[in-house]
Amino acid sequence: MNALRGQLELWRLHLAVIVLGVIAELIGIRKIPFGIGAILLLPLLYAFVMAALMNPNVMPKFAKFIRQKEVQAASPLIVIAIMPFIAKFGTTIGPAIETIIEAGPALLLQELGNLGTIVLAFPLAVWGLKMGREAIGATFSIAREPNLAIIADRYTLKSAEGTGVMGVYVLGTLFGTFIFAILASVFASLDVFDPRALAMACGIGSGSMMAACTGALTEVIPGMKDEILALAGASNLLTYATGLYAGLFIALPIVEKLYNATAGKNDLATATKKEV
């Protein structure tokens, strides 16, 4: 009863979420042609920008409507909002388990490629950009919904790790489809990789990125459209199934150990100097 009363007191927050969500959906998906690809602007991006602008710490004039009380209450609600995504993944994976098994070992092993974010991004984040623990959340995965859930459960999204994963998530939402469309077009045109391998690479656990990637591939190789879509779909589904566990039990522990073994020592030394 007290919990219900507390939520009713936050009516400003719930009203703002509903209004911003409706506005974002009414704007819809906007496609901006750019060279051989396109930038897709999704409703999620509009909602994020509008909500950020309504934060009284960003725009003080909104403090009369969105108080610090609502700001503090909004953070834990993100976890609740993510849970339907995780439930959806489970209901999608179960009925398609036979398809996943039939996909073969190549499709299963390609999931290990997602660990490439650690090899490529972690050194740049820690030594190049001098990031703190934000590097853990930013580099252990490609930062889609399942990965947000992992960080939210392990550290909370209010932590430094949460800041890192949310930053990559927002940037991926804005530029991910464009980058994937460009890369798919370039690699398909070079004729270096098998089109089936490129199709499997399109399935990284993001529906919008997979759509942009397969769209670019089918434009370059129209004769393999059905096979490209089938492989990309199976790969995307498999990433939903295994990506969560690979991130939780493999990628995240590796990044934590790497950070503690490298940047973590520097953090401890800096903290010790400050105390002295």
From TrEMBL:
It comes from the Bacteria. The chain crosses the membrane at residues 12-29, 35-53, 74-97, 112-129, 168-190, 196-217, 229-255. The keyword Protein transport does not apply. Keywords: Membrane, Transmembrane, Transmembrane helix. InterPro entries: DUF3100 (IPR021450). This is Membrane protein. It comes from Thalassospira alkalitolerans.
